[in-house]
Specification:
The protein is mainly alpha-helical. About 85% of the residues lie in helices and about 0% in strands.
Length: about 260
């Protein structure tokens, strides 16, 4: 019975946590279209999440595309199917690897930063000061970051897809002996509009999840340095798991038919 009781407590705690996150997300959505608005905070969030994330996103996509081309060529050589490298690199990067890798990089870089920043503000009572100044913390801290991530991460995903395909192209034409014009033509012919739409839609969802988890764990942080550390660690873990789960669901929605 003690084992069942412990299992029941764990399940109830998980359901309670899901409920708190859902309520937090609903509150964020409800504040999205109601004044006052804070364009300066929105602009800073766009810069931090979008522009400053480009180097890590670009390098990750570049090396992933190159490694993918090598792996597909080595595997295809067993079946005399080396010619499928352009098609598989394109569909692999656009449908799955591009959005997921960008989402995880954003979770590692942006979610942790948001959680640490907001948790530190809570520890140093800056959030209480916002309330004293009649400024709603959710409107000032959460809404600009979630909105910026939802809008800018699809752009990062698109850039990552292009750079990843270029990485595969560079490896295939530079070391594997592929014709450059034929490689590009095969890539363009194989990709469909649905592939691109699914990639951008995943980017929007992943960006929303990453920013929302950072804000939620930051707001729920405990007091002291340990509270900031736990909030940062929990936000990245939750964002990564939710991004992978959302990727599974969205892949089923877009490609199950």
């Amino acid at each position: 019975m003690s084992l069942l009781a412990a299992l029941g407590r764990s399940v109830l705690a998980l359901l309670a946590a899901i409920g708190r996150v859902a309520l937090f997300g609903g509150a964020t959505l409800s504040h999205l279209f109601r004044p006052p608005f804070y364009p300066r905070e929105f602009g800073v969030a766009l810069l931090n999440i979008g522009w400053l994330s480009l180097p890590v996103v670009g390098l990750t996509a570049l090396f992933t595309g190159g490694a993918l081309a090598l792996q597909i060529y080595a595997g295809g050589a067993r079946f005399n199917a080396e010619a499928v490298v352009p098609q598989i690199v394109a569909i692999g990067m656009v449908r799955e690897l591009g959005p997921v890798l960008v989402g995880l990089m954003i979770a590692a870089r942006v979610t942790s930063s948001i959680a640490a920043e907001i948790a530190t503000m809570k520890v140093t009572e800056q959030i209480d000061a916002l309330v004293t100044l009649s400024t709603h913390p959710m409107k000032y801290l959460t809404v600009p970051r979630v909105l910026a991530a939802t809008l800018v991460v699809p752009i990062l995903v698109g850039v990552g897809d292009i750079i990843g395909i270029f990485g595969g192209y560079a490896v295939a034409t530079g070391t594997l002996g592929f014709n450059a014009a034929a490689y590009i033509q095969n890539t363009v012919d194989f990709l469909e509009l649905r592939d691109i739409a699914s990639s951008l839609a995943k980017g929007a969802v992943f960006g929303c999840i990453a920013a929302l988890m950072g804000c939620y764990f930051g707001m729920q942080s405990g007091r002291g340095a340990q509270g900031v550390g736990r909030a940062t660690k929990g936000s990245v873990e939750a964002a990564a798991v939710l991004i992978l789960a959302a990727n599974f669901v969205l892949t089923g929605v877009f490609f199950s038919l």
